[in-house]
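Suppose a colleague, Dr. K., hands you the sequence of a protein chain of 131 amino acids and asks what its three-dimensional shape might be. Before reaching for any lab equipment, you can write down a predicted structure in token form. Begin with the sequence itself:
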Amino acid sequence: MNAIKLGLFLFLFLASFAFAAAPAASSCGGSVLSASQSTSQGEYSIQLFKVYSGNLASFNIVKNGQSGLLAISPGQTKTSTVYPDVTIQVCSASNIDNPAWADFKVTVNAPAPSPSPAPEPAPAPSPAPEP
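The predicted structure, expressed as tokens, is then:
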């Protein structure tokens, strides 16, 4: 009987790790998503693609049907090379929990305005008529 109780205890103990949940709220003022979930910020859709070994979080950033991937470790902040106005900070992540999750913050900066063209020079004055 004690062996059954011990077995049940071990099963429940180990199962508690397999079904641990992601944090209820972001610790950095952003989003907490499970793998494959997405959030929107302005014109961008940010999907937590997958969380790999070492808790490396990969994101799929989509705008107008175009996408770019970005992989970030917890404690790091990276700017997308495809969309340089999008920066993601990963506060924490876990690939051990089921489902995998990441706590992150997205910042979208307004793109720099393009320089305005230089004004054209004024036309040269006409020569005076001859007398």
